[in-house]
């Protein structure tokens, strides 16, 4: 068994609406108005609990093949990797149409030195909300077509994959969606230079059941449900990087890529 004990940074309860800045805020304005609620939880080895699905638990492990050679080449990622991820999500979900629209590369060694890499995120969150999920479709597609699409079932599914493996440091942990309740999710502003986004921060509840896939390889990908318009299916899957107590002292920094997709049914 590779279950571990890890500390997760939840949102501490607050009266005002939470926000985070994704760029330097105006002078005198703090980067965020939140406080963390640090909780030590058991994170279960998902390899020992097979059978998880996107529609019940909100996550699923799949095998992946790619012709992408350089994840730091943005043009190549869009030209080569996006179509591969669209095919992967379509095959896994049966979606009639899949649109890959965004990606992040995470590498602590390069973060802050260029615009191509970011650090792993160590706070519990979900990327979209009941409001920002449909808004993303409207932003990307627009017009009458967007309204037709949001009138039917659609989902936001992230594809998370190590660029090299096995992952030894900062693995991604995710919460079984079936153990979460609506009151656990707190709408939070994510303030960009040109727009405001909305994500969910998460309040702690002891019933949350956390998982991770230890030592993920580059030929494995995690599908993560971040929005689903069908309320009878898993809709939001809270997630966060964790510090793995089993990481060796000379652990290689985690390098990963995540692609966000819209799946239309």
Number of domains: 1
Q: What is the helix fraction of residues, given as a range? A: 10-25%
Quaternary structure type: single chain
**In percent, how much strand structure appears in the residues?**
25-35%
Number of helices: 3
Instruction: Tell me the series of helices and strands, N- to C-terminal.
Output: EEEEHEEHHEEEEEEEE
Nearest-angstrom radius of gyration? 18 Å
What can you tell me about this protein's structure?
Helices cover 14% and strands 34% of the residues. The chain is α+β, with helices and mostly antiparallel strands and 265 residues long. The protein has one domain (4-264). Helix 2 (132-140) packs antiparallel against helix 3 (143-150). It is globular and about 55 Å long. It starts with a strand and ends with a strand. The mean pLDDT is 96.
Question: What key phrases describe this protein's structure?
Answer:
265 residues, alpha+beta, five-stranded mixed beta sheet, five-stranded antiparallel beta sheet, 3 helices, 14% helix
SSE arrangement:
Elements: E1 4-11, E2 19-21, E3 36-45, E4 59-63, H1 74-93, E5 97-106, E6 125-126, H2 132-140, H3 143-150, E7 154-162, E8 172-175, E9 185-191, E10 196-202, E11 210-212, E12 220-228, E13 239-241, E14 256-264
Parallel strand pairs: 2-9, 3-11
Antiparallel strand pairs: 1-3, 4-12, 5-14, 6-10, 7-12, 7-14, 8-11, 8-13, 9-10
Helix pairs in contact: 2-3
């Amino acid at each position: 068994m590779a279950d571990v004990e890890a500390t997760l940074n939840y949102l501490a309860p607050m009266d005002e609406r939470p926000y985070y800045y994704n760029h330097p805020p105006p002078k005198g304005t703090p980067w965020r108005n939140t406080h963390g609620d640090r909780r030590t939880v058991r994170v279960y080895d998902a390899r020992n609990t097979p059978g998880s699905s996107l529609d019940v638990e909100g996550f699923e492990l799949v095998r992946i093949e790619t012709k992408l050679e350089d994840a730091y080449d943005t043009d190549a990622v869009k030209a080569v990797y996006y179509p591969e991820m669209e095919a992967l999500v379509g095959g896994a979900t049966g979606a009639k149409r899949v649109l890959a629209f965004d990606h992040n590369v995470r590498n602590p060694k390069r973060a802050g030195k260029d615009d191509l890499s970011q650090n792993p995120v160590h706070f519990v969150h979900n990327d979209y909300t009941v409001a920002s999920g449909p808004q993303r479709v409207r932003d990307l597609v627009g017009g009458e077509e967007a309204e037709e699409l949001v009138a039917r079932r659609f989902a936001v599914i992230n594809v998370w994959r190590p660029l090299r493996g096995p992952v030894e440091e900062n693995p991604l942990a995710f919460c079984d969606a079936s153990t979460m309740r609506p009151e656990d999710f707190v709408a939070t502003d994510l303030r960009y230079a040109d727009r405001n986004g909305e994500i969910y921060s998460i309040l702690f509840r002891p019933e949350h059941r956390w998982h991770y896939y230890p030592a993920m390889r580059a030929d494995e990908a995690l599908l993560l449900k971040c929005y689903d318009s069908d309320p009878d299916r898993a809709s939001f899957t809270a997630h966060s990087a964790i510090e793995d107590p089993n990481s060796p002292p000379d652990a290689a920094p985690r390098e990963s890529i995540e692609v966000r997709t819209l799946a239309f049914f």
